[in-house]
Design a protein that fits this description.
Structural class: mainly beta
Radius of gyration: 73 Å
Oligomer: single chain
Number of strands: 24
Length: about 500
């Protein structure tokens, strides 16, 4: 144990008073390190010891600590002093005359007679005359000083050294409305602006964040994925019809009249997706724009099905077929004489005509068959089923001598014309019928019309060759006669263009 150096009583008393002051200061709150004792600093309002400051080289406490030990044993020393350096006479060094042990005055020359050791740096002891500035090896590094322009986070803070450390950040809830805090950000500390709510937005003291009643809601950044201000939604995209529109409003709201234009569905707005939906409506409900002409529509399982449109075709070429609402089918006659096409192949020259029944129909002329090749020496055959023509060698109707023969030329062609007879050339432009008669002996051949059964104006021609118009032997409107040799001869009956009945007798040699 080191023996304390002799000190004067005054020095000891001063040391004790200093220690008491230091202890009192450390028990109190501080705002600056200068308010704390030696080897202490102010950290967050409390005095804390500076590590490594005030210890000797071997880690023991400095002389001050020993002087402040109130319960140290007091024992006589060999020089007549106690262990704490107080002599029998009450002096700090035990001398009555104020001189040292050798009878001389103390080296320090002080008026209190204390021994002041000569500081030696470094000797492992932080002695009087040494400091952290003059002997770092004995006294340790100096603690940072507030105001040196450097904020040391281990020793300084915004609380005890605002000169070096930045301003403390605001703390919401500490009862102070600090810089950086607003009413909306920290209502516990900051009150709303005095004039908020007066209906006028003061640009100096109010904004959309501090006083929305006066300045209105802050504009939103739509779309940014955050629902702000008056936005109903914000999905972060500009796709329309996905439940959240580009303007950050819902595509539809519960109760909105969604309409998919389908009369057979019931539409609704889904409250979760905010999209319009549809479900099948009631079956059997009329739908569509159908009518008696186009067919009526009916709903079935959410779809509209239409009936077949009304067919007004009467298959009559001489009528115009239409459908009117609400009457239905209307058939309007075409003008008489209008060209038309009937369904028969073997009849041509069709026009709209009235028959005996007075009904307007498409009627053709048999004499204008598509198979007429204009050759009287061929038999023209029209096949209605095959819609085709064929031509064969003609076989004429045979009549007997002394007999009576009759018929009708209606529908027959006009094949024999411009016949050259003994009395001249005759047009013969009506419908024709031809017969043949065979004579066994030469003599007189006579053909006579029965007037009662023959169309007025009919003409009979006697020919020696059925294919030669210049082979006419005789002609008459009543009776034709010619002297002939044995052989075959031809009887041609020419009536009006429309045809008509005829009847005649044949007299042979």
């Amino acid at each position: 144990m080191m023996t304390a150096r002799p000190r004067t009583r005054a020095a000891i008393v001063l040391g004790l008073l200093w220690l008491l002051a230091v202890g009192a200061a450390c028990s109190e709150e501080c705002t600056r390190s200068s308010q704390c004792g030696a080897c202490q600093q102010c950290v967050r309002g409390s005095c804390s010891a500076i590590p490594g400051c005030g210890t000797d080289a071997d880690g023991g406490a400095d002389a001050d600590d020993g002087a402040a030990d109130a319960d140290a044993d007091v024992e006589p020393d060999t020089d007549g002093t106690t262990e704490d350096g107080i002599g029998p006479d009450g002096d700090a060094d035990g001398d009555d005359d104020g001189s040292g042990a050798d009878g001389d005055a103390d080296d320090g020359g002080g008026d209190d007679g204390a021994d002041v050791p000569v500081a030696v740096c470094p000797n492992g002891l932080c002695e009087e005359g040494e400091s952290c500035e003059t002997c770092t090896l004995d006294c340790g590094a100096c603690p940072p000083r507030c105001g040196d322009g450097s904020c040391q986070p281990d020793y300084e803070s915004c609380w005890d050294c605002a000169e070096d450390c930045p301003t403390c950040p605001p703390v919401c809830g500490n009862g102070e409305c600090e810089a950086g805090e607003t009413f909306e950000g920290c209502a516990a500390d900051c009150a709303p602006p005095v004039d908020c709510g007066d209906g006028t937005c003061n640009p100096v003291t109010e904004s959309c964040t501090s006083c929305w009643p006066d300045c209105g809601d802050c504009p939103s950044s739509c779309p940014n994925g955050l629902v702000e201000g008056t936005e109903e939604c914000d999905d972060g995209n500009t796709v329309a019809g996905d439940g959240c529109e580009p303007g950050c409003t819902f595509t539809c709201h519960l109760g909105d009249p969604c309409d998919d234009t389908n009369p057979c569905t019931e539409n609704f707005c889904d409250s979760s997706s905010h999209l319009c939906g549809a479900r099948a409506g009631t079956d059997g409900v009329p739908c569509g724009t159908g009518d008696i002409c186009t067919g009526f529509g009916t709903c079935l399982s959410g779809s509209c099905y239409s009936s077949t449109a009304l067919d007004c075709n009467d298959d009559e070429p001489c009528t115009v077929d239409t459908c009117e609402v609400p009457e239905g089918c209307i058939h309007t006659e075409r003008p008489e004489g209008s060209s038309c096409v009937d369904p028969f192949y073997c009849i041509t020259g069709e026009t709209c005509r009235r028959g005996l029944d007075l009904i307007l129909r498409c009627r053709g002329d048999l004499g204008t068959s598509p198979c007429n090749d204009g050759n009287i020496c061929t038999t023209d055959i029209c096949d209605e089923d095959a819609d085709s023509c064929s031509y064969e060698t003609p076989i004429f109707r045979e009549v007997e001598c002394g007999g009576t023969t009759g018929g009708n030329t209606m529908g027959r062609p006009n094949e024999y014309r411009n016949l050259v007879c003994p009395d001249g050339t005759h047009t013969a432009g009506g419908a024709d019928a031809i017969h043949q008669v065979t004579l066994a002996s030469p003599g007189t051949l006579t053909v006579t019309f029965n007037a009662a059964d023959t169309e007025p104006g009919a003409t009979v021609y006697l020919l020696s060759d059925a294919c030669l118009m210049s082979s006419c032997l005789a002609r008459s409107t009543t009776s034709a006669t010619a002297t002939v040799a044995a052989g075959t001869y031809y009887i041609v009956v020419d009536t009006s263009a429309g045809g008509g009945p005829y009847d005649f007798n044949v007299s042979c040699p």
